[in-house]
Amino acid sequence: MFDNLSDRLRDIIHKTRGQELTQENMQEAMREIRRALLEADVNLRVVKAFISAVKDKAEGENVVQGVDPSQQLVKIVHDELVNLLGKELKPLDLSGHPSLIMMLGLQGSGKTTSSAKLAVKLKKEGKNPLLVACDVYRPAAISQLQTLGSEIGVEVFTIPDEKNVQNIVQGSINYAKEKGFNVVILDTAGRLQIDTDMMAELLLIDRIFNPHEKLLVIDSMTGQEAVNVAENFDAQLSLTGLVLTKLDGDSRGGAALSVAYCTGKPVKLTGTGEKLNALEDFYPERMATRILGMGDIVSLVERAQEVFDEKQALELEEKMRKSNFSYNDFLKMQKQMKMFGSMDQLLGMLPGIRIGKDDRQKLSHESEKQFKKMEVFIQSMTPEERENPDIMNTSRKKRIAKGCGMDLAEVNQFIKQFEQMRMMMRGMSDFKNMMGKGLPGLNSKMGKHALNKAMSMMRRFK
What we know:
The chain is of the alpha/beta class and about 450 residues long. The chain has helices at about 5-15, 25-40, 45-60, 70-85, 110-125, 140-150, 165-180, 195-210, 225-235, 255-265, 285-290, 295-305, 310-320, 325-340, 345-350, 355-380, 385, 395-405, 410-435, 445-460; strands at about 100-105, 130-135, 155, 185, 215-220, 240-245, 265-270, 280. It has an 8-stranded mixed beta sheet, with helices on both faces. The radius of gyration is 27 Å and the shape is flat.
């Protein structure tokens, strides 16, 4: 997301490195930033307001002794991006008994899928959500929600053959109170465009049931149209927040920068992938750092804590330490990495890595292709071979190569890479244990051996 804008802003800031923030070079920088924002499909009103704010702050900024002026410009642009994106996290209002969340949007915006993703997110946070099928017009809309509900283990409330949406909503609230659901998510009907009948139905639900949250789901890839849709919905229903979908597929990101400013409503959630766990809280501060190529370490750590099983991680570490790391363990580790996200997403969260979108996607594609081949290779082994890598011999390798459709040379290469990884992991584990005993351990025989092994493996993988 924001890849084109991010690259342009970093190039503009790089040009000012080592220079004082004068009126002349600031005018050139502002012209370039304006062009970059417009190319990113940011609304013209937003561009004007952003440029004006940055220009006023930059021209009045005193040069701090020992600080590169370009870094001061980074700080100013960063702060204004944070303001543009909503300043701070605005959490969902879940104070009701039950809390009523009304999901709104046009057809194709990802409303039904986002409803299911929200249910997944709330379940992780200890809530007991109920999905409600309120779209009685679109063919198969109810069955789609039921399929998603079955997949994520969340109950879907519906009244067969009922066409009065008010009856469905009232029935769902009564059912939630009776069965102990504390969050009710209404998947309302969308249209190809905003019309009177659509708004009339939504207004009735709003006025009769007074939802705690009215979230408009917007497809980030619709660009300028996203602002018009958001303003129309807000004028009629007074939205409480926005949900931006497909942020991972939009390299420009103009909708995210525009809708919050133009409506004055916070972006509360963002969809960053196709998987049903790919819905995240929206942190303006973190998004601003990512746009400026400064990474997002906090989100990276949070995702790691969410995905990785601590007990399993300790077991793997023990196996590494004892050199018992097997092919089965590799498959477990690979499964967790898949849950973590694509290589493309991970690289986007790391600070200081200047790799373009195309190169990141290429690297991600190649890595996933190699992992899949490795998976097929391991699945062609016997259970004994997977658990005991040391028993591998030439006849076994030939049989495995035939089973997975690879050349013997390629199988040998995979085995070599796996052994190198095992050695590196053992070296890193020894080094960690040695460091845990204090720096004097570096002078011990074991410490020097572990350090030399780790350094040797790191040089080999450069």
